[in-house]
Amino acid sequence: MADLVIAPPAPAGRSPASWRGLWIAPPLVVLAAIFFYPFGLIALQALGGGTDSSTHTLTLANFAAVLHSRQFLSGLYHTIAIAVSASAGCLVLGFVFSLVIAFVPFPGARFVGRLIDTFIALPTFLVALAFTFVYGSAGLLNQSLMTFFHLSLPPVDFLYTQWGVVLSEVTVYTPFIMRPLLACFSQIDNAQIEVASSLGAKPLRIIRQIILPAALPALLAGGSLCLLLTVNEFGIVLFIGAKDVITLPLLIYGKAIQEFDYTTACVIAVINIALSLGLYACYRTVVSLCGGRRAALG
């Protein structure tokens, strides 16, 4: 017969559940100090209240003015266009590269897979710097072409456009697609592929009917994460300095640091935060649905 374990009595006047509930207080205090309080000041400034609400009237007039300004609409358009284009490029390239690494045997495949983890840890501006050295006006490619063909102007100038920003972000964030895809491909039973191939199925049919359905949850989760990250990308856009390409993060920086228009900067920041939280909610929803689907299939 098992020995009985008698728990020590709880302190008088307070139950163990109430003591455990106090552990939530320190994280809430830290979160309030480093997030809620600064965000509250930003929201108060955006609503026209400043730091002293007794001398200001809270109003939505600042939001109305910003939402109707051409500069904000242009920034919102560039932010969404770049984020969607970069996320689509990441999905396509990530899927193709992951297929090659996972299902096409070649020397060094394992090393390439490990290298992806290292690439994720690198700061984003390094890619923009590398692209500037290679594709910039004074980069290796332009200097070589100008010398070889005796040109007076750089023939390659896509880097300082919206597509240069998209290409840089695709290069940076494609590993965020490949990492979950490679993990997903490692769980696919190779017997299914071998049986389908022995029955005469072509590679494209195997990809469409076997690999793609299994990879769909990873694609959706990775694509949602890339969309969230590219919407808030600041370093690449600032470092490349693309002409007439102003995104919301860059617009906030310009209004606050260069023009000292803190009210407009706070309004745009609140809108950008709302957009980011909405995308994050979509990302969490997709991850939860994908997890439920995997559990149901498993």
From TrEMBL:
The chain crosses the membrane at residues 21-44, 80-106, 118-138, 210-242, 262-283. It is found in: Cell inner membrane; Cell membrane. GO terms for cellular component: plasma membrane. Signal peptide: none annotated. PROSITE patterns: ABC_TM1. InterPro entries: AminoethylPonate_ABC_perm-PhnU, MetI-like, MetI-like_sf. Residues 76-281 form the ABC transmembrane type-1 domain. One of its GO terms (biological process) is transmembrane transport. Keywords: Cell inner membrane, Cell membrane, Membrane, Transmembrane, Transmembrane helix, Transport. It comes from the Bacteria. Its main location: membrane. It is a multi-pass membrane protein. The keyword Transport applies. Belongs to the binding-protein-dependent transport system permease family. This is 2-aminoethylphosphonate ABC transporter permease subunit.
